[in-house]
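To whoever is on call:

I kicked off a structure prediction for a single chain this morning and the downstream step that reads the tokens threw a length-mismatch warning. I double-checked the sequence; it's 91 residues and nothing unusual in it as far as I can see. Pasting both halves so you can look.
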Amino acid sequence: TQLILGLDRDSELVSHIYDERNEAVKRMVRQVIDTAKKANCKIGICGQAPSDFPDFAAFLVECGIDSMSLTPDTAVKTRLIVAAKEKELGI
């Protein structure tokens, strides 16, 4: 996210515009997942986004992610979101 947006998430000057859900970030994530899938590779993601933003976790499922890391305090809630999205998509 930092490289795509060209921002330092720890800088007080720009942290307010740092957002993993930015369309450029999502486009890059989708491209990487698509590339991995075409090569028959499993792909996962680690970071705060799936734990912090339920909509981002759902987006990752839509893209076909195989795994995502979660913080312990959001694991159950996010797993329920993932299960609901998988059911919606029929996967």
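Update from on-call: the warning came from a stale cache, not from the record. Cleared it. Sanity check on the structure: DSSP finds five helices and two strands in the chain.
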